[in-house]
């Protein structure tokens, strides 16, 4: 069993357990994973003045801005989720259609006030990249915990048939649900006593302050990450519409 952790990356802590007989291989994979996470943090962390996104947010008045190939791919992914969630997922928190993605890794903004925030995207994207690294080397049993809110289980625990995870009520610390992860990801979102009113509906501009938690189970870590936040602000009709685009997920809302 290999345990690796990063105390602070992409705004939270990462822990990973990898089960395999080849320890040198696991050490190499851990180096690949940490390198990728550091690269993504330097790219997507808007609070880091040296990050690519921070620099991009400071140049929105230019007619055209050059971005890296990966950031262009990320923006196209965000555009996809913006459309598939009927605009409830929006990294601009206002109007993603104000971003124009051109060829040759260039983008422009129709509105100079537009800024980008990848807070509801980055961890899911990072988990997707970790998943790709692990599966390329046929590592079959892995547990990845990103700040207790985005958790991926590949294969199973050495002494069980899955990776068991409990969801706690953030107000009482009591268990409200239990999940058995096997080749899927659990992402949760919600308000807590210390941290509430932080999820905004981009269609209304209103912050959600309800005492509830949402969970999404999906074999796609990015779907899980994005939709757990969308579930917090979507109404019943919107969730029903979005379900048509993501039929493989399982979403749950807990009133706490």
List the main descriptive attributes of the protein structure presented here.
6 helices
Protein architecture, described:
The chain is α+β, with helices and mostly antiparallel strands. The chain has helices spanning 23-44, 52-57, 69-84, 122-136, 221-233, 236-243, and strands at residues 2-9, 12-19, 65-66, 99-101, 106-109, 141-146, 150-154, 163-168, 175-181, 184-190, 199-200, 207-208, 212-218, 250-255. It has six helices and 14 strands. It has a seven-stranded antiparallel beta sheet with strand order 1-2-6-7-10-13-14. Strands 3-5-4 form a three-stranded antiparallel beta sheet, covered by helices on one side. Strands 8-9 form a two-stranded antiparallel ribbon. The model has no long low-confidence stretch (mean pLDDT 95).
């Amino acid at each position: 069993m290999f345990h690796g952790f990063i105390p602070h990356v992409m705004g939270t802590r990462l822990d990973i357990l990898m089960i395999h007989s080849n320890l040198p291989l696991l050490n190499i994979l851990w180096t690949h994973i940490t390198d990728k996470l550091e690269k993504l943090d330097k790219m997507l962390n808007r609070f880091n003045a040296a990050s690519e996104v921070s620099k991009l947010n400071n140049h929105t008045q230019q007619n055209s801005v050059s971005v890296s190939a990966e950031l262009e791919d990320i923006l196209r992914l965000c555009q996809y989720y913006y459309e598939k969630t009927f605009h409830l997922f929006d990294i601009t928190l206002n109007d993603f259609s104000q971003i124009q993605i051109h060829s040759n890794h260039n983008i422009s903004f129709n509105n100079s006030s537009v800024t980008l925030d990848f807070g509801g995207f980055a961890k899911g994207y990072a988990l997707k990249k970790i998943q790709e690294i692990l599966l390329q080397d046929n590592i079959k049993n892995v547990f990845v915990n990103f700040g207790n809110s985005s958790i991926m289980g590949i294969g199973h625990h050495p002494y069980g048939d899955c990776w068991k995870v409990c969801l706690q009520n953030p107000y009482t610390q009591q268990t409200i649900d239990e999940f058995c992860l096997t080749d899927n990801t659990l992402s949760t979102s919600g308000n807590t006593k210390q941290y509430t009113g932080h999820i905004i509906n981009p269609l209304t501009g209103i912050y959600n302050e309800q005492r509830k938690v949402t969970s999404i189970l999906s074999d796609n870590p990015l779907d899980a990450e994005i939709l757990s936040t969308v579930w917090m602000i979507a109404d019943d009709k919107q969730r029903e519409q979005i379900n048509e685009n993501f039929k493989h997920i399982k979403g749950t809302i807990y009133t706490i």
